[in-house]
Write the structure tokens for this entry.
Amino acid sequence: MTHDDDDDDEARPRAIDGVSRYITPTGMAATRRELSALLYEERPRIVEIVSWAAGNGDRSENGDYLYGKRRLREIDRRVRFLTRRIEKAIVVDPAAQTQRNRVFFGATVTYVTEEDLERTVVIVGVDEADLAVGQVSLASPIARALLGGHVGDEVRVMTPSGADLIEIMAISYPEPVGMNAL
């Protein structure tokens, strides 16, 4: 089935409200670990360095003091960002997906390009994306093109070099926790 018709394109989900708020449970755990490390490990260590450096006299020429103060501002900025992200996040567990024959958030999708290159990507939250390990943001052009698709669908992906046609070859989701294969 090809999704080239305007009617089909309008019927497929292309944009998701609050896209930057979606995160997997794994992504949320990583975000919480980063926040905890900043608050309980790095920040106290830098505060100690700044306190020590402040006691060494002229602060205007004290590199440890100046660097430490700047690093504290960076840490505080990141802590505020992470705190807001955690508060507003919508955690979506891909293992709970019931429509496993369609591409949704958290899906692992294998597709083939017009050049017969096979690629596999996992659709994750914007803060989790890491192309080096095949994780693409829900807001990325490839994820937006794949969303709602079925195996065998051909979809157009807008790239900087123009539109590419790709075919969905496989869709999978993690198994729900507690579900053992018989």
Remarks:
- Confidence is low (pLDDT under 50) at residues 1-15.
